[in-house]
Amino acid sequence: MSSTNNTIVLVTGSNKGIGFSIAQALLSSTAKGYTIILTSRTLSRAQQAAQSLEQEVKSSVTGSQVFAFQLDIEDDGSIETLFAEVEKPFGRVDVLVNNAGASFDIIGPQAGWTERELWAKTYNLNVVSTRQFTRMFIPLLLKSTTPRLLFMTSTVSSLTETSITAYPYNTPPKEKGWPKTDIGFNIAAYRASKTALNMQARDWHQVLQADGVIVHLIDPGRVATEFGGGDPTEKIKTGASTPDVPAGLVKRVIEGELDQDRGKIVGINGIVPW
Questions:
Q1: In the prediction, which pLDDT does 227 show?
Q2: Which long-range contacts (C-beta less than 8 Å, at least 24 apart) are formed by 239-242?
Q3: CB within 8 A of 124, min separation 6: which ones?
Q4: pLDDT single digits (tens) 12-22
Q5: Cα separation of 217 and 198, whole Å?
Q6: DSSP E strands: which ranges in the chain?
Q7: Is the preceding peptide bond at 147 cis, omega within 30 degrees of 0?
Q8: Structural domain boundaries of the chain?
Q9: How far apart are CA 205 and CA 209, in angstroms?
Q10: Tell me: domain 7-271, CATH 3.40.50.720, correct?
Q11: Which of 12, 44, 59, 245 is 20 to 30 A removed from 25 (C-alpha atoms)?
Q12: 8 Å CB contact between 65 and 2
């Protein structure tokens, strides 16, 4: 089904946004062959994304390929099905990219969610489901001779940088009492879930050291996608990068350029503090 010489990369949530751009960057490589396992909650969306990539990268000289699969990391049955679908034809996975995730801090309240529902949904997707997916796919990763495990985190997860009040998400309210009405750009559930994800990744870094698995956390910075709501075009106007920028960083990590920074959060501008 795929060349055994290709590096097999599974990217969760890769039918659009940063995940799609990661697949795009790898498939466009002229130096190395990749087999991309592109996933989406809906198979039809994964297939559409894969077809789009195939049309775009028609003249790959490296023999790179892309295959579409359905995956909902919140559903153990979906993870088990994907495992079986990947194990039979491929036999291994060289790189797991945990990209799937979401922020509900804005869209949740708009949909009428309670505070408990907002936090539970955020943690279940970004932390618990990412853990479960990774745990279930470790056997395939360990069949690789060059295993890599990546987690997409966020700048807002840094505990150190919470003291930088110039950032809009760190600006303290001026009013006293409760509830607050001037909290401003409040993404507390999302940022807390990504801080928890950082600890999860650090744990994998320690647990899998003897197996030679290289673990990285990726800080994509502020990116102009549909993530968390809002118009990507407007985000660019306020300084957000296009998805190809973090995708290029991920490609560098996968190709070993930042192995000296394993177990750390790597961003566009260098190491991000915990």
A1: 52
A2: 241/268
A3: 74
A4: 999 999 999 99
A5: 7
A6: 7-11, 34-40, 65-70, 95-98, 148-152, 214-219, 265-267, 270-271
A7: no
A8: 7-271
A9: 6
A10: yes
A11: 44
A12: yes
As beta bridge partners, residue 35 has 8, 65
Task: State the catalytic residues.
Answer: 154, 190, 194
- SS3 percent helix, strand, coil of the chain, rounded to 5, is 45, 15, 40
**Confidence (pLDDT) at 237:** 47
Model pTM score? 0.91
User: Cα separation of 190 and 41, whole Å?
Assistant: 20
Mean pLDDT of 64-77: 97
Pair of tokens at residue 127: 């932390």
Q: What is the b/e burial string over 50-65, where b = at least 16 CB atoms within 10 angstroms of the residue's CB?
A: beebeeebeebebebb
- For the chain, the residue count is 274
Starting at the edge strand found earlier in the chain, the sheet holding 270-271 runs 65-70, 34-40, 7-11, 95-98, 148-152, 214-219, 265-267, 270-271
Closest CA to 215 of 158, 151, 154, 269: 151
Task: Express as a percent the part of the chain with pLDDT over 70.
Answer: 89
